[in-house]
Design a protein that fits this description.
The complex is a heterodimer of chains A (about 475) and B (about 100). Chain A contains 16 helices and 11 strands. Chain A has about 475 residues and is of the alpha/beta class. Chain A has an 11-stranded mixed β-sheet with strand order 1-3-2-4-6-5-10-11-9-7-8, with helices on both faces. The longest helix of chain A is centred in the C-terminal third of the chain and has 21 residues. Chain B has about 100 residues and is mainly alpha-helical. Chain B has a domain of about 40 residues: Histone, subunit A (Orthogonal Bundle), CATH 1.10.20. Helix content of chain B is about 40%, strand content about 5%. Chain B is built from 3 helices and 2 strands; from the N terminus they run αααββ. Chain B has a two-stranded antiparallel ribbon. In chain B, helix 1 crosses helix 2. The longest helix of chain B has 23 residues. Classes of the chains: A alpha/beta (about 475), B mainly alpha (about 100). Chains A and B meet through helix 10, helix 11, helix 12, helix 13 and helix 14 of A and helix 1 and helix 2 of B.
């Protein structure tokens, strides 16, 4: 029998039903592998002690309900450490919340509990999801399974490394700007950022509320699609969730490529991208050059909107209500010392930046302008979608970089140059492995990303399947 | 856009963050370089009639009035996370001078 940790989530579901193996078998196999390999990768911050209890329960459900059981019943899932699971620590990889126990379940967790899936553990991330390498975790960096001297990307780097190293079949991450797609690209996975509002944010520790969205990591398109379908839907606990939308079919097979924008990618990555586009023409796709004049402005606009929202959202962490408390001489001192001790460098940087941007006199020049720019970018993309069904770019400018290589903040921010338009416009986008680039003798994966209009999430899975030559489930 | 150390100290006050002198200087130069990167946004000429935000299609979502949950069933879960408490109150230092 093949190693259980090599099977996809869909294959596990099948095996449970043919009684080839049980959820307890699979969960034990994963825990044994994590015990052996996690110390080298630091993908998990915690493996849940009661994972096997969950598996046992799932086996009972499978025995009782058979074919009627949800496809995720008994399937182990890893969770980014900013998703609340009642009774478990949710730290957002910050010293501020190192001992913070979630008082309620996130909506995605409520949904997955109802599926009787197995909660395997919580994964490492950049503190409060701020970063593109998982180096900004307060609990040490996560390493890329393809080359442990390199980063897995971020901020959902722990989830990406876990799925890539077969320490979980599937995982959830969250994205504010590229934090699912970029680590998927760097770790060779399928990563999906849904339409803003497709998945509830209730119980996701907020970073940039107008941008945040939860989404899946998987090794196949079918698994990513299945996990997305299990967590999506309107939610009374998140007023920005959208009414359920039905699946649509692609109107055409035209892929628009914003050539001037794509030029910001590294030469080797661009070459792999061009080759993949060529292959897609053999699947009947037509490649069309398009203009997206505002696309290069998306990342600078993001670095105005996001810090503004960060400084507001993180104001709640005051050392009084929950989280770290450091005692000072008076109340003000308590605030200042608690926040200084709880937040690390990148988080402080963004709080200060956001406070600057929202200051009287700068608000109009920065925040208001950047918000209006979001409309310009959204309009530009809408115009593009009048003639093409998809817009494609490389997911990230290059493959995984070395740990410590991008110590200058702006050079790190540039990792998300291709991610920003989808987040600012609220569009769905998927990253799929497109090939490899060789660095120092190691083959490193790189991804291609596709965007489509809002609420057409499902057609991204069609093109993603064609990229991987994956058959329709 | 130049940023002074006094600017950073003021921002740190507003953000309720205690910073050392070394941290102030490092942040000063970093914030300056990030502002230089985003400065392009200020110079963009917006097309006439552009919406002030891309989310104008949103509408307020109201929840129907219904049966409220029983009193204090969540209090213990929430308060158990407080650094200091006195019964069902958060305990903090004196607020009024």
């Amino acid at each position: 029998m093949a190693d259980l940790t090599d099977l996809t989530a869909n294959a596990l579901a099948k095996g449970y039903r043919t009684k080839e193996f049980s959820a307890v078998d699979v969960t034990r196999a994963y825990i044994a592998k994590i015990e052996k390999e996690n110390s080298a990768l630091n993908a998990y911050l915690e493996v849940f002690a009661d994972a096997e209890v969950g598996a046992k329960n799932a086996d009972e459900v499978l025995a009782r309900e058979g074919e009627r059981a949800h496809v995720l019943t008994g399937v182990p899932i890893a969770f980014k450490d900013n998703i609340l699971i009642k009774g478990k620590i949710a730290s957002a990889a910050s010293k501020m919340l190192a001992n913070h126990v979630a008082p309620y379940d996130a909506t995605v967790i409520t949904k997955l509990r109802a599926c009787n899936s197995v909660f395997l553990g919580r994964t490492n991330m950049d503190e409060f999801a701020m970063g593109s390498s998982t180096e900004h975790s307060s609990f040490g960096p996560t390493k890329n399974p393809h080359d442990v001297t390199r980063v897995p990307g971020g901020s959902s780097g722990g989830s990406a490394a876990a799925v890539a190293a077969h320490l979980a079949p599937i995982a959830l991450g969250s994205e504010t700007c590229g934090s699912i797609r970029q680590p998927s690209s760097l770790c060779g996975l399928v990563g999906f950022k849904p339409t803003y509002g497709a998945v509830s944010r209730s119980g996701l520790i907020a970073m940039g509320s107008s941008l945040d969205q939860i989404g899946p990591f998987a090794r196949t398109v079918a698994d990513a699609e299945m996990l997305f379908n299990s967590i999506r839907g309107i939610d009374s606990l998140d007023g920005t969730t959208l009414p359920d939308f039905s699946d649509v079919s692609p109107a055409n097979k035209k892929i628009g490529v914003p050539r001037a924008f794509v030029n910001d990618a590294q030469a080797e990555t661009k070459a792999v991208f061009e080759k993949k586009l060529q292959e897609l023409t053999e699947h009947g796709y037509e490649i069309v050059d398009i203009e997206l004049k505002s696309a290069p402005l998306a990342l600078p606009a993001y670095y105005i909107v996001m810090p503004a929202e960060v400084s507001t959202n993180l104001a709640r962490l005051d050392g009084m209500r929950y989280g770290l408390h450091v005692d000072g001489v008076n109340l003000l001192d308590d605030y200042k010392l608690s926040r200084a001790a709880g937040f690390s460098e990148e988080t402080r940087r963004r709080i200060i930046l956001g406070t600057y941007i929202l200051s009287s006199g700068y608000y109009d020049a920065y925040y208001k302008k950047a918000t209006a720019l979001r409309s310009v970018i959204t309009d530009d993309l809408s115009r593009a979608f009048e003639s093409v069904q998809y817009v494609a770019t490389p997911t990230a400018p290059g493959p995984a970089f070395k740990i410590g290589e991008k110590s200058d903040p702006v050079s790190m921010y540039l990792e998300d140059i291709f991610s920003a338009p989808a987040n600012l416009a609220g569009l769905p986008s998927i990253s799929v492995p497109m090939g490899t680039v060789t660095k120092e003798g190691v083959d490193l994966p790189v991804g291609i990303q596709f965007m489509t209009p809002k609420r057409t999430d499902t057609i991204l899975f069609d093109v993603a399947r064609d990229v991987l030559n994956e058959s329709r489930p | 856009m130049s940023v002074s150390t006094d600017d950073v100290k003021k921002l740190a006050e507003l953000s309720r963050l205690a910073l050392t002198e070394g941290e102030v200087e490092k942040l000063r130069s970093e914030i300056e370089s990030i502002l230089a990167y985003v400065a392009v946004v200020q110079k963009v000429d917006l097309p006439p009639g552009i919406a002030a935000s891309p989310h104008l299609d949103l509408q307020n979502v109201m929840r129907e009035d219904g049966e409220p949950h029983a009193g204090s069933i969540y209090s213990e879960d929430m308060l158990s996370q407080a650094p200091a408490r006195d019964g069902n109150f958060l305990k903090v230092k004196k607020i009024l001078g």
